[in-house]
What does this fold into?
Amino acid sequence: MVPQIFIPGVQRVIVVASGKGGVGKTTVTVNLALALQRSGATVGIFDADIYGPNVPLMLGVHRQKRSQGMIAIARRKDAPAYIQPLDRFGLRIMSVGLLVGEDEVIDPARSPDAIGQLVVQTLKDVQWGELDYLLIDLPPSAGQPQASLVQHVPIDGVVIVTTPQDLSLLDAGRSLRLFQQATIPILGVVENMSYFICPDCGTRHEIFQHSEKWRPPALADVPLLGRIPLTPTISKSINKADPLVHDHPDDPVAQAFLAITAVLQSRLS
Ligand SMILES: Nc1ncnc2c1ncn2[C@@H]1O[C@H](COP(=O)(O)OP(=O)(O)OP(=O)(O)O)[C@@H](O)[C@H]1O
Ligand SMILES: [Mg+2]
It folds into this structure.
């Protein structure tokens, strides 16, 4: 067994995962982080999506200068953390995208293990300080860096984001297996884009069949943490880099995120 990396000062590490891309993982991550913060917690976000790091974009943080290629990953095991996280809305943020470059592409076929190592090493090198929760936003699928994170980082639980369509659910079932095999608790499913709220009249439209009625076996026992509607209020706030829970905390959809964090916190305590 490879020794697990201890992140000093961090109480709980939660990963946000999905099978399919584009289901709203990053949107859910940033809003959940802000909702946890509103409940009084100190929260960090680590964007481990090396293929498409979006956390900086969604929170409006940018790197000032370009790095000289890939950062060095071979460091002494006991080397102290040295990367200062960025601060946005009181959240501590670090993204592999800020170190590797927002517009640089890493070819996963070239060295999948190096990608896992880079992500785990970066996570370890950040001076997180005292955090109640560290949320890790993952790329879709069950490849790297998921496997390295599962192997090296003590993860307290997984939040799975799906959309209601069956394909996305089946994919979520597949990515679930990696965590289940490592006996990491699956905290539940956030069903994103669950229904549609008409921006003109406010009427709720159920467009898809819901995951509760249509679940693959791997998700059968996983609780539903909550539903988030498909609504322009979410995408507009994401586009202006001021997520809904910060921008309009009283909005009913922001309240839905707050309700999810209450369930999450009770499941973790
Ligand atoms: N509930 C929602 N209502 C409206 N728009 C949404 C909702 N959830 C996400 N979006 C929008 O959908 C797009 C994709 O969301 P996001 O980037 O969070 O997905 P992702 O799963 O992280 O994608 P990737 O797999 O590429 O990392 C974004 O433009 C976001 O603003
Ligand atoms: Mg994403």
